[in-house]
Design a protein that fits this description.
single chain; 333 residues; alpha/beta; 8-stranded mixed sheet; 4-stranded antiparallel sheet; 10 helices; disordered N terminus
Length: 333
């Protein structure tokens, strides 16, 4: 994934870019006359063919909204979301339908993503009928082929979702997403609702499928272990903004932004004997209204040496080191 600074020209060639976001914005109206909620705040990202971009952040950071905006499942307010040559911000329904034949999504809750009234063969077969026009024996054969591809017993195709385990349900969702032979899969917390043992199986399956089918992945997750195991690149989000991005090993091993450091410091060790000190952060800042004219993390940050700059000027994503981009006035200072 090529990293592009916000203060540089965004006219970089998109020949190898499967996804390129430029100043993407999504705002939800406040409830009961309350303040609007800025879910995505002028986000820029680039994902190249064959890579896996992980997106991490706390709940409410905007990562799932970003995933849905990519495919036009949620309408962005402004900016550009170029996905496989289609700008999903300005595209009409016909263009979006065509795109969804080339890009799929796997959701967090496997059962909720399936129609409980549809048999498994119908759930997998639906995109084949809509996008490829398959019917009869050809449709049945393709459904069996897809079930075998995701290591799901074809004998289960006559069952309903509630008759399958969570892992089997998610394999069904993956088969359904692969039915139209997409180039891009957006994976929104695809294993978080599964048992630990099943998570490993699903992740191994996704890695195998990516290698066999030459897929590009965008993986939304809160699990840093999963991110390290599966992703090649990483973007860290906080309150709708990308604050750090780069190669996954660089960001996780040498985090530069104070929020990334806080996020990694919050992860519990698998060893119960390891006592991790609480990360340094101003929790009182959680009750402070974020000033969108400055750094979104400023109210909680304890690293600032110039509070005035942090609260009055939005930091741009700029190059730090050889592969990382960081949006912080203090980083590298």
């Amino acid at each position: 994934m090529t990293l592009v600074s916000e203060n540089l020209s965004m006219s970089t060639s998109t020949q190898d870019a499967v996804v390129e976001l430029r100043d993407l914005v999504k705002v939800y109206p406040g409830r009961g006359g309350g303040a609007d909620v800025v879910a995505i705040d002028h986000t820029n990202l680039r994902v190249e063919k064959g890579s896996t971009l992980g997106i991490v952040g706390e709940s409410g950071s905007g990562k799932s909204t970003l995933a849905r905006c990519l495919l036009g499942l949620v309408s962005a307010d402004s900016g550009v979301a170029n996905v496989l040559g289609t700008d999903t911000v300005s595209a009409g329904q016909r263009e979006l339908r065509d795109l969804r034949g080339r890009a799929g999504i796997v959701f967090q809750e496997p059962f909720e993503a399936l129609d409980p009234r549809m048999r498994i063969e119908d759930a997998i077969g639906e995109p084949l009928r809509l996008h490829r026009g398959l019917r009869g024996k050809a449709l049945e054969a393709k459904v069996v082929e897809l079930m075998e591809l995701v290591v799901l017993d074809p004998a289960l195709r006559h069952r309903y979702p509630h008759q399958l385990s969570g892992g089997q349900q998610q394999r069904t969702n993956i088969a359904r997403a692969l039915a139209t032979e997409p180039q891009l899969l957006v994976l929104d917390e695809p294993t978080s609702a599964l048992d630990v043992s099943v998570r490993s199986e699903i992740l191994s399956l996704l890695v195998t499928l990516q290698n066999e089918l030459d897929l590009t992945y965008i993986l939304v997750s809160h699990d840093l272990t999963t991110i390290r195991a599966v992703c090649s690149h990483l973007a860290v989000m906080y309150l709708g903004r990308v604050v750090e991005q780069g190669r996954v090993e660089d960001v996780l091993d040498r985090p530069t932004h104070p929020y990334t450091q806080f996020l990694l410091g919050s992860a519990l060790s698998l060893d119960p004997d390891v006592k991790t000190p609480p990360p340094a952060v101003n929790e009182a800042g959680l009750d402070t209204k974020v000033d969108r004219n400055g750094c979104c993390f400023a109210p909680r940050c304890v690293a600032t040496t110039d509070p005035g700059a942090c609260t009055s000027t939005v930091p741009l994503l700029v190059q730090r080191g050889t592969t990382q981009l960081v949006a912080c006035h203090e980083a590298g200072a």
